[in-house]
Amino acid sequence: MNFSKEELINMTYALGEAERNCLLASRIYEQKYPFARHPGSEAFEHLRERFEDTGNVKYKKRDVEQRTVINDKNELTVLLSVEENPHVSVRQIAVQVDLSKTSIQ
């Protein structure tokens, strides 16, 4: 479960107040923010590990390589879609032929 920037900051404060004790930090957070969602001690452990490893509380971005799928069949399908309707958008074609927008461009 991803937490907002504000939640991560408040969780970091609670973790500092608890002297890096994740269970205690969870309880402190629950007391200070009774109307917010309450992260468990495991969420605080992940936060502490991420902060100690990277010096940052931001989530790591996944390395996803976007590959375009260009072959004769896909190229022909896209060209026929445009010929059929010259005003069709790239997004509409992508949905129709189940390809990424970058593959169509």
Structural write-up:
The protein has 105 residues and is mostly helical. It has two domains: 5-54; 72-104, no CATH class. The chain contains six helices and no strands. It has helices at residues 5-17, 22-32, 41-54, 72-84, 90-97, 101-104. Helix 1 (5-17) packs across helix 2 and helix 2 (22-32) crosses helix 3. The longest helix is centred in the middle third of the chain and has 14 residues, at 41-54. The radius of gyration is 23 Å and the shape is elongated. It starts with a helix and ends with a helix. Residues 6-57 form the DUF4817 domain. This is DUF4817 domain-containing protein.
Structural class, by secondary structure, is mainly alpha
Strand content: under 5%
Average residue-wise pLDDT: 86
- Detail the poorly predicted runs: none
Instruction: Tell how many strands the DSSP assignment holds.
Output: 0
Number of helices: 6
Number of domains: 2
Gap between N and C termini: 34 Å
- How large is the radius of gyration? 23 Å
Helix and strand succession?
HHHHHH
Estimate the global geometry from the Cα principal axes: elongated
List key phrases describing it.
6 helices, DUF4817 domain-containing protein, 105 residues, 60% helix, mainly alpha, DUF4817, 2 domains
Helix/strand layout:
Elements: H1 5-17, H2 22-32, H3 41-54, H4 72-84, H5 90-97, H6 101-104
Helix pairs in contact: 1-2, 2-3
Brief sketch in words of this structure:
The chain is mainly alpha-helical and 105 residues long. It has two domains: 5-54; 72-104, no CATH class.
